């Protein structure tokens, strides 16, 4: 699972107030890449699950146009229909980003990510959780399973 944090994941101020009430103060977007082998030098992408404004976007196998060699191409975007942000598949070649594993994080940042209430929506209706949080990670994997 790859995760990205986006502050202010809600409609831009140029949109009418009726559209700006949607979205979140904090946004977590994530992509899950399903492999046939955990060894990075000898694995094939079997499926992909992207967090979406509602539910998941799943591909198994992913379309070739969304791959650059053995790398998945995704883009962050604002969804005007549901008034929120998400990641989507793209044909555009982008930049590579640094990756850090959950176990590589020092204890303090890991504890802060685990214990922060990310949901600022009224009555926590969005159920916004950091996807790699202890107790959330396996639930996300199960709900995102594309096969």
TrEMBL record:
Keywords: Secreted, Virulence. It holds the Pfam family NPP1. Its main location: secreted. It is found in: Secreted. GO terms for cellular component: extracellular region. InterPro entries: NPP1. Belongs to the Necrosis inducing protein (NPP1) family. This is Uncharacterized protein. It comes from Phytophthora fragariae.
């Amino acid at each position: 699972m790859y995760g990205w944090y986006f502050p202010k994941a809600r409609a831009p101020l140029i949109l009418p107030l009726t559209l700006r009430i949607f979205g979140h103060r904090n946004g977590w977007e994530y992509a899950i890449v399903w492999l046939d082998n955990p060894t990075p030098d000898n694995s094939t992408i079997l499926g992909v699950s992207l967090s979406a404004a509602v539910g998941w976007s799943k591909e198994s196998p992913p379309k070739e146009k969304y791959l650059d060699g053995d790398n998945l191409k995704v883009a962050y975007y604002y969804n005007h229909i549901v008034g929120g942000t998400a990641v989507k598949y793209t044909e555009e070649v982008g930049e590579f980003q640094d990756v850090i594993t959950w176990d590589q994080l020092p204890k303090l940042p890991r504890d802060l990510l685990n214990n922060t209430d990310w949901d600022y929506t009224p009555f926590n209706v969005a159920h916004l959780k950091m996807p790699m949080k202890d107790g959330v990670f396996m639930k996300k994997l199960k709900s995102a399973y594309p096969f």
